[in-house]
Amino acid sequence: MTGRVENLWIKRAHRGPMDSVADAMFVAGQGIAGSVDRSRRRQVTLLESEAWAQCVTELGVERDPALRRANVLLGGVRLAHTRGRVLLVGDTRIMIGGELTPCERMDEVVPGLQRAMRPDWRGGVFAQILAGGVVHMGDPVEWEWAPTASGEVR
User: What is the CA radius of gyration of the chain?
Assistant: First the structure.
């Protein structure tokens, strides 16, 4: 199943606004060029658009997914329980490091959002960039390998 990049954001200052961009340079082993708050393990953060929609629908509100403060919004790709898997995003390769746990700042967006994001990794994931390149809005996204019908990874 192929998904796509629905939005890209760069955070230029700690606690600063998330600036929407049409494309972003993913730098192998570092993160997104021009974005702050990255580390060796948390080089890029990704949010599943369907998970965001579930959370805000449950809370009976509409909110911009930029308020999650992730770098990439993906559609059509499930991120839950994918630690260690490699995702192809346009011409780049990124490895999922783990769940991006929602912090108390999410309740500033809408009360109850932090709790709504906790099940099934709905807060997104953090990842490391294995092979860099420019990622564009609309780029295809797919897993480098997928589980077989028996659940084994091939």
Answer: 15
Q: Which CATH superfamily groups domain 3-7+23-131?
A: PK beta-barrel domain-like (2.40.33.20)
Q: What is the 3-state secondary structure (H, E, C) of 30-68?
A: CEECCCCCCCCCCCEEEEEHHHHHHHHHHCCCCCCHHHH
The full set of domain ranges for the chain reads 3-7+23-131
Model confidence pLDDT, tens digit, residues 83-110 = 999 999 999 999 999 999 888 889 989 9
Instruction: State how beta strands 44-48 and 72-75 pair.
Output: parallel
To 10 degrees, the CA torsion angle through 146, 27, 31, 153? 10
Give the phi and the psi of residue 107 in degrees, each rounded to 5. Answer: -70, -15
Q: Kindly state the percentage of the chain with pLDDT values over 90.
A: 77
Rounded to whole angstroms, the Cα distance separating 97 from 79 reads 11
Q: What is the rounded distance in angstroms from the CA atom of residue 12 to the CA atom of residue 35? A: 5
